[in-house]
Write a structure and sequence with these properties.
The complex is a heterodimer of chains A (176) and B (600).
Chain A: H1 2-7, E1 23-24, E2 36-38, E3 41-43, E4 49-50, H2 61-78, H3 91-97, H4 100-109, E5 111-114, E6 119-122, H5 129-132, H6 135-146, H7 163-174
Antiparallel strand pairs in A: 1-2, 2-3, 3-4, 5-6
Helix pairs in contact in A: 2-6, 3-6
Chain B: H1 2-29, E1 47-48, E2 62-68, E3 80-82, E4 85-89, E5 96-100, E6 106-111, E7 133-135, E8 138-142, E9 147-152, E10 158-163, E11 178-180, E12 183-186, E13 198-203, E14 209-214, H2 219-222, E15 230-231, E16 234-235, E17 262-264, E18 269-273, E19 294-299, E20 305-310, E21 325-332, E22 335-343, E23 348-353, E24 359-364, E25 372-375, E26 387-389, H3 395-398, E27 404-407, E28 421-423, E29 428-434, E30 436-442, E31 456-462, E32 471-477, E33 482-489, E34 498-500, E35 504-508, E36 513-518, E37 524-529, E38 539-543, E39 546-553, H4 557-563, E40 592-597
């Protein structure tokens, strides 16, 4: 819990600061991990951000947003579609190994692992709003890729952007 | 009087040393047994005058010896050979080895800088380094952390160091340096981090900074003379480096300078290109964003810009203008001209008069290029020299949050930095190219110093309706602006080419093949699969009467990042997913020099 607190550089992370707000769709259709929807985002029973993909392939907004943000911020090292590269490991597999909290911690704090023949160094993104304001989006996108329910490439169909997410985005990007 | 005399004689002495350094270096460049500069010569020909290996016997080539660099990252650039010593560099941590060619490559000395590893992740797209330079018994290394180091070529001892940039704001280095006269001219990387690009000259003997010219900013920063610096023959006027930007955006304007430089000793001009304006979201930076995406001709002694040509005003696709500037003397309309030919990321092959900056040729060197219908070549037109942008492929006109699809080439360009070669025997350019297209969706981003400042999502895939591969290796006529022949390649060709007096052209492939082809016909004459993918540049030298060909293997760079898992075309539907080759099915990380020769 202490580690996670360290990662919360922008304060109100979606979902975890959601006490008292409207909860929709307690019984979501489909077999995905999403248990409920709140403020335009989907969550597991444990309150961890989750993707939601409808039977016709429509992805939730956060998953689509995660696709976009991943390919702007992460792709230059980790390769397209979370597949990894000669430079950095595949993140679609990383989110299967580590849980949501470890994921946020790693993105916030980075990694340094340097030896003579190999250097694995990931920067700290904790102060980068282009990453941290979308960290839940990037996580659910990668989780959908890792779970094998989302193909490579741009999701063809997406939900409309929920107002609650727009409001969160504006607040997060404007905040210090 | 006495003082004045002392002053003038010092000046004369300095000038004399400079002239000597230049003469020695040019002499070594003209000696085909040596490989003394990354680009082969000041003109960036990447041509070897050796002909013992030729198109008749190259098929018999065999491996003479190998050397492991000890580093498993993308290996760009090539070794140098000066006298009996070969100088081999590595990606980060930027080790330099001096190998004794008289003693089976025994290590004479090794230099390993201590650099803060936090520089690694601010290097966009792998920790490559494009090699060391030589002049005046000194090896010059420009490290990832932007430290420029002068090493005694005999001992590896540090003569001086200079700090050229600040990695904490995203300034890093991947390029080699250009020794000219008594100066070493160096660039900077970091266009994806919102740095402001610059080119700097350091005194070769002391490491003192002599001049610095920025890509954008006030005239005093850009070293642009409003009256005497020209763009397409006309004076640029005051504040040309700020007046096509909104507010202070030029301060994080990009236009980095990480490509290959050339030099014309007669004109005393240095030529190079500037990179993309930051961010990749064009709507966030209205205007032409001068002088990003520009060919610069600067005076080597003062840094003053003589002429400029902006190829891609207001970039919308990340088409950096940094690729090599190849200098040739060729006949144009019956007249010998001093030419500069440049294969831009934007897919156009340009030929200009390098004395005046007059634009002579601008033609597509990959037929897939579709974002423009061509460049306005009419000097009387108000849009003279500008590319006509096709609205469908304009990510600026389509706007933020719109996915523009089917743009060719992709952001990595019809060609990236991988340098071409020129043979004066055929008057042809041999060009390694990418044959990749993209979808591009720009969106709003905020700037944080030292953090990526990208602002676009893109998907890349092999050029549709073509051979299905992601690259071509072409022969180009720079005066006519025509492809003479084209060899399809499965992957982008990310290796620098070498042309030789034996009428053989060499290049490497991402699968790891070193290939030799006939300079006239393009017919393949030899191939050998090295241990890892090749993004290095082929070089040649002679030792004890024997000609050698050298190449670094070690997959990585942008190519290793974009192609490792293979590409998919989102427009092809599910059936085609996985239908494109994944580089990881062919090669793995490596770091090795392979040297070839003919059988004894």
């Amino acid at each position: 819990m202490k580690r996670f607190a360290q990662a919360l550089v922008f304060g109100a992370m979606a979902g975890l600061a959601s006490a008292g707000s409207a909860t929709e769709n307690r019984d979501l259709p489909g077999n995905g991990p999403a248990a409920y929807k709140e403020n335009g985002r989907y969550y597991t029973e444990d309150g961890v951000p989750a993707y939601f993909i409808a039977e016709d392939g429509t992805v939730d907004w956060a998953t689509f947003s995660g696709f976009r943000r991943y390919h702007a911020e992460c792709h230059v090292c980790h390769g397209p579609d979370g597949m990894g590269s000669t430079y950095a490991p595949p993140l679609k597999d990383a989110v299967e190994r580590m849980d949501y909290y470890d994921f946020v911690y790693t993105v916030s704090n980075g990694i340094q692992n340097v030896s003579a023949s190999h250097q694995t160094v990931m920067p700290t993104f904790g102060q980068n709003k282009n990453v941290m304001c979308y960290i839940d989006d990037i996580y659910v996108y990668l989780k959908a890729r890792g779970d094998g329910v989302l193909e490579r490439g741009r999701p063809a169909k997406k939900e409309a952007k929920p107002d609650a997410i727009t409001a969160f985005e504006n607040e997060c990007m404007a905040g210090g | 009087m006495k003082k004045l005399f002392a002053f003038t004689s010092t000046v004369a002495l300095c000038a004399g040393t400079a002239a000597l350094a230049n003469d020695e270096l040019i002499g070594l460049m003209n000696d085909p047994t040596q490989w003394v500069i990354q680009t082969g010569n000041y003109a960036n020909h990447r041509y070897s005058g050796l002909d013992k290996i030729n198109r008749e016997n190259v098929g018999d080539l065999q491996v003479a010896w190998t050397f492991s660099t000890g580093v498993l990252r993308g290996h760009e650039g090539s070794p140098l050979v000066i006298g009996d010593t070969m100088y081999v560099h590595t990606p980060f941590p930027n080790i330099v080895y001096a190998l004794d060619l008289n003693n089976d490559g025994r290590i004479k000395w090794k230099y390993e800088p201590k650099q803060d590893a936090s520089v690694i992740p601010v290097m966009c797209c792998d920790t490559v380094n494009r090699g060391v330079a030589y002049a005046n018994n000194t090896i010059f290394l420009h490290q990832a952390d932007t430290t420029v180091v002068a090493l005694n070529a005999e001992t590896g001892e540090v003569k001086w160091t200079a700090v050229n940039g600040d990695p904490s704001i995203g300034e890093t280095n991947t390029a080699t340096v250009l020794p000219v006269g008594d100066k070493v001219i160096v660039g900077i990387s970091g266009g994806e981090f919102g740095v402001r690009g610059h080119v700097t000259a350091y005194n070769m003997e002391t490491g003192e900074r002599v001049w610095r010219g920025y890509s954008m900013g006030p005239d005093s920063d850009t070293l642009i003379d409003p009256e005497n610096t020209t763009h397409l023959g006309k004076p640029v006027g005051p504040d040309s480096g700020t007046n096509t930007w909104e507010g202070d955006q030029w301060k994080i304007g990009g236009g980095t300078t990480w490509g290959w430089y050339s030099y014309d000793p007669e004109l005393n001009l240095v030529y190079y290109g500037s990179g993309n304006p930051s961010t990749w979201n064009p709507s966030q930076r209205p205007g032409d964003n001068r002088w990003s995406m520009t060919i610069f001709a600067r005076d080597a002694d003062t840094g003053m810009a003589k002429w400029l040509y902006q190829m891609t005003p207001h970039d919308e696709w990340d088409f950096d203008g940094v690729n090599e500037m190849v200098l040739t003397e060729q006949e144009v309309d019956g007249q010998m001209r001093k030419l500069l030919t440049h294969f831009d990321r934007n897919g156009l092959g340009y030929t200009l008069d390098r004395e005046t900056g007059e634009l002579l040729v601008a033609e597509k060197y990959d037929p897939a290029v579709n974002w423009t219908t061509g460049v306005d070549m009419d000097p009387n037109s108000p849009t003279y020299g500008r590319p006509a942008v096709v609205p469908e492929y304009s990510t600026a006109q389509n706007g933020e949050d719109v996915n523009s699809t089917g743009i060719c080439p992709a952001a990595l360009g019809s060609k990236d930095q991988q340098p071409s070669a020129f043979s004066p025997r055929t008057n042809l350019f041999y060009v390694p190219t990418n044959h990749v297209c993209m979808d591009y969706e720009p969106f709003r981003v905020s700037y944080t110093a030292g953090q990526p400042y990208v602002g676009a999502t893109l998907s890349m895939y092999p050029a549709p309706d073509s051979h299905g591969g992601m690259g071509n290796f072409i022969a180009w006529d720079g005066v006519k602006g025509e492809i003479k022949w084209s060899i399809p390649e499965q992957f982008s060709v990310w290796s620098g080419a070498l042309a030789t007096a034996g009428d053989v052209v060499f290049y490497g492939t991402l699968e790891g093949y070193l290939k030799a082809i006939d300079a006239e016909t393009g017919e393949e004459l030899y191939r050998f699969k090295t241990p890892s993918g090749i993004i290095g540049n082929v070089m040649s030298y002679e030792h004890d009467g024997q000609q050698y060909i050298g190449i670094l293997s070690g997959v990585g760079g942008w190519a290793g990042i974009g192609l490792a898992a293979g590409l998919t075309n989102p427009n092809d539907g599910l059936g085609a997913v996985g239908g494109y080759a994944a580089l990881s099915d062919y090669t793995a990380l490596g770091g090795q020099l392979t040297v070839f020769k003919l059988p004894d």
